[in-house]
């Protein structure tokens, strides 16, 4: 499909080319948080093709349930893998089939049904996401057609409302008006190291949306500085910090305790400061296979705390926060394969 067609439904069209042999990963995922309690779900439909081995391409179903109501977060995770022969992906809209699971967009509503299981754990879902917000592009539009960056991401349906059911090892959970998002990302390789933050609704403004990524790339024996891009929607405005020329000028701190802090400025003189953090027990470690080979460790949390300050010339600062409704993913080299949950 035309990579510059980034409206809905075309923004969900598959980028995977089964005839190519250069390696590819692509995911369509949804996430939702309870509007008042520290509970969240994350479901991902994925196609993965290792470089040079297109015959080994496969479909994957991931599902994770986060429950932070106790002193230690309860995390239940499941994953299924299926051969590509049992999968199909539409090129012009969202219609993904992986085995018996399907995710599709009929215009007003995104529907997702399926089941993932591993090691005696099973998570099954039947969900509908409704919303009319336009897609949120993390990168400037022209970069979606460019060879660099290798990894692309967007929110096809930001700020939507989820309804339906989720069964976690037979335990039924009714999802009734949970805010969340339907997302799409793809690339030839995973970014070498990054921290991703997404907030769908802050305590002060339930309609505000934040999407950001801070990344470092490895070029042979050398590493780039931190490169950060971000977009904040609030009050009918979109504050963009997506210029690659400024991406390396921001201040970024990422520590092993699970805290990401960054500050950016855009060409309009607006300053954005974000702090995202979660306790260690709120993360689950996942293995992300890399198309060129090897794997990455993803520390995945959907119950993170985020504080945000937006300073605009001639206006009072905008302060937003959420105590447990942010997504925070920290990705780096896989150190101990035995430690990952999936």
Poorly predicted ranges? none
Mean pLDDT: 95
Number of strands: 24
User: In CATH terms, what is the fold-level topology?
Assistant: AttH-like fold
The number of domains is: 1
Oligomeric grouping of the chains: single chain
Rg from alpha-carbon coordinates: 19 Å
Topology as a string of helices (H) and strands (E): EEEEEEEEEEEEEEEEEEHEEEEEE
Query: β content, as a range?
Result: over 45%
Structural class: mainly beta
Classified in CATH, the superfamily is AttH-like domain
CATH class: Mainly Beta
Number of separate helices: 1
Describe the sheet with the most strands. 12 strands, antiparallel
> Could you say what the CATH architecture is?
Beta Barrel
Helix content: under 10%
Termini separation = 32 Å
How would you portray this structure in words?
The protein is mainly β. The chain has one domain (10-339): AttH-like fold. 1% of the residues lie in helices and 59% in strands. Strands 1, 2, 3, 4, 5, 6, 7, 8, 9, 10, 11 and 12 form a twelve-stranded antiparallel beta sheet that branches. Strands 13, 14, 17, 18, 19, 20, 21, 22, 23 and 24 form a ten-stranded antiparallel beta sheet that branches. Strands 15-16 form a two-stranded antiparallel sheet. It starts with 23 loop residues before the first strand and ends in a 9-residue tail after the last strand. The model has no long low-confidence stretch (mean pLDDT 95).
């Amino acid at each position: 499909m035309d990579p510059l067609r980034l409206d809905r439904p075309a923004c969900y069209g598959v980028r995977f080319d089964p005839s190519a042999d250069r390696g590819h990963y692509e995911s369509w995922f949804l996430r939702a948080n309870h509007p008042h309690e520290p509970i969240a779900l994350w479901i991902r439909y994925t196609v993965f093709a290792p470089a040079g081995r297109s015959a080994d391409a496969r479909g994957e179903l991931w599902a994770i349930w986060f429950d932070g109501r106790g002193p230690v977060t309860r995390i239940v995770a499941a994953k299924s893998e299926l051969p590509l022969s049992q999968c199909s992906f539409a090129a012009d809209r969202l219609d993904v089939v992986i085995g018996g699971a399907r995710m599709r967009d009929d215009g007003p509503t995104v529907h997702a049904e399926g089941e993932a299981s591993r090691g005696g754990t099973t998570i099954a879902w039947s969900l509908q996401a409704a919303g009319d917000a336009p897609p949120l592009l993390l990168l400037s539009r022209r970069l979606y057609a460019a060879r660099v960056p290798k990894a692309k991401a967007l929110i096809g349906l930001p700020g939507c409302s989820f309804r339906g059911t989720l069964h976690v090892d037979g335990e039924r959970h009714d999802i009734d008006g949970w805010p969340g998002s339907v997302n799409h990302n793809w690339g030839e390789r995973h970014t070498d190291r990054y921290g991703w933050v997404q907030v769908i609704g802050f305590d002060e403004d339930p309609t505000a949306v934040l999407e950001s990524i801070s990344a470092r790339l490895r070029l042979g024996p050398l590493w780039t500085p931190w490169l950060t891009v971000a977009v904040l929607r609030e009050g009918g405005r979109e504050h963009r910090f997506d210029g690659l020329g400024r991406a390396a000028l921001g201040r970024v701190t990422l520590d092993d305790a699970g805290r990401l802090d960054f500050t950016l400025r855009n060409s309009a003189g607006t300053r954005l400061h974000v702090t995202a953090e979660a306790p260690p027990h709120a993360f689950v470690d996942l293995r992300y296979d890399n198309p060129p080979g090897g794997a990455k460790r993803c520390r995945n949390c959907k119950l993170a705390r985020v504080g945000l300050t937006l300073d605009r010339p001639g206006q009072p600062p905008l302060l937003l926060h959420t105590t447990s409704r942010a997504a925070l993913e920290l990705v780096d080299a896989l150190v101990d394969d035995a430690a990952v949950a999936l």
